[in-house]
Amino acid sequence: MRVEIKINASCVEPKVVIITNSMTEEIDRMVKQLSETAPQIITGSKDGKLEILEQKDLIRLYAGSGKVFAMTTHGEYALRLRLYELEERLDKGRFVRISNSEIINLKKAESFDLSLTGTICVKFSNGMRTYVSRRYVPRIKKILGV
Questions:
Q1: Closest to 71 (Cα-Cα) out of 94, 91, 53
Q2: Nearest to residue 116, comparing CAs of 133, 101, 103?
Q3: Exposed, middle or buried, 124 (CB in 10 Å: 0-12/13-18/19+)?
Q4: In the chain, what is the greatest distance between 2 CA atoms, to the nearest angstrom?
Q5: Alpha-carbon distance 21 to 30, whole Å?
Q6: Beta-carbon contacts of residue 50 (< 8 Å; ≥ 6 apart)
Q7: CB of 71 within 8 A of CB of 79?
Q8: Contacts of 59 (CB under 8 A, 6+ apart)
Q9: CATH assignment of 42-144?
Q10: Cα(20)–Cα(28) distance, integer angstroms
Q11: What residue segments make up the domains of the chain, in order of their start?
Q12: 3-state helix, strand, coil in the chain (%, to 5)
């Protein structure tokens, strides 16, 4: 893909023009991403404080005991959003759902162990492990190009 930027002093508002021979999934994703008006902020509470969580720091988001938690490089936070709401806010190129109760950051995954029958073990750079449920294995294999 070629990117071209033109600086024009008389321009009041930035304008993006996409020239392509056909509409693809990638172009559709870019259009949706460029069209988002409000920033997708995710907040979590820890030790009685509410903090803004950066997507680059998120390792995994999971549901447990009727609540949703975020494991980050700075610790674990309780979230008020549901997983489906988080899925809408998170970067689709970086985050993927691996079960009904968990979303992971692919950029924080160190390895994927495919030797287990019917599932995949995900090892993160901090040593933590989690498992892809059988229902989501085909989607993860497609993402990994397997």
A1: 53
A2: 133
A3: middle
A4: 61
A5: 15
A6: 43, 44
A7: no
A8: 71, 72, 73, 104, 105, 108, 124, 126, 128
A9: 2.40.50.1020
A10: 12
A11: 42-144
A12: 25, 35, 40
pTM: predicted TM-score of the whole model, two decimal places: 0.72
User: Residue 52 and residue 77: Cα distance in Å, rounded?
Assistant: 10
AA identity, residue 79: L
Cβ–Cβ under 8 Å, residues 52 and 43: yes
Q: Taking a C-beta distance cutoff of 8 angstroms, is the pair 120, 140 a contact?
A: yes
The number of C-alpha atoms within 13 Å of 62 and in the hemisphere containing its C-beta is: 16
Amino acid at 96: V
Looking at residue 72, its pLDDT comes to 94
pLDDT tens-digit profile of 3-51?
Answer: 888 888 888 888 888 888 998 888 888 887 777 655 578 999 999 999 9
